């Protein structure tokens, strides 16, 4: 299946199973007999490296065992909150709750409607403090994720 890049690399159980399956094919077509199959399968079972496993097949044509190909590590995507301060996170979570609590308070107690100015004032102050930084951070993160997925 695949070339042996380094005979010193250790093999997995799946590599041994692949080798036993390939050896079984050689026996089924008559290249080796049952005694030789037993001897070679014992060597496969005891093999620790790719080199030891390859020695079992040195005098046999294809099929040879395939090896596990290591998969490249997948980078963890950046958090959706990356680049946003903890103060902004807290304000982003609490502000909608403050609006709801204020409306419930006004309706429940018959308080003056002008109390709604408190969460509105906090919203305006937050926009003034952080400006478009919040929105720009999300746009930048979205572009970065698309590049990672495409590339």
Automatic annotation (TrEMBL):
The chain crosses the membrane at residues 90-107. Residues 9-61 form the DUF1707 domain. This is DUF1707 domain-containing protein. Keywords: Membrane, Transmembrane, Transmembrane helix. It comes from Amycolatopsis thailandensis. InterPro entries: DUF1707_SHOCT-like. Pfam families: DUF1707 (PF08044).
């Amino acid at each position: 299946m695949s070339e042996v890049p380094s005979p010193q690399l250790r093999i997995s159980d799946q590599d041994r199973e692949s080798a036993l399956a390939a050896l079984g094919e050689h026996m089924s077509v008559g290249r080796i007999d049952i005694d030789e199959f037993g001897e070679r399968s014992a060597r496969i079972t005891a093999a620790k490296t790719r080199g030891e496993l390859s020695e079992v097949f040195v005098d046999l044509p294809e099929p040879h065992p395939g090896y596990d190909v290591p998969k490249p590590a997948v980078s963890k995507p950046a958090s959706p909150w990356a680049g946003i301060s903890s103060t902004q996170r807290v304000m982003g979570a609490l502000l909608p709750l403050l609006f709801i609590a204020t409306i419930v308070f006004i309706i429940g107690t018959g308080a003056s409607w002008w109390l709604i100015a408190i969460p509105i004032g906090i919203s305006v102050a937050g926009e003034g403090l952080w400006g478009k930084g919040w929105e720009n951070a999300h746009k930048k993160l979205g572009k970065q994720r698309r590049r990672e997925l495409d590339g």
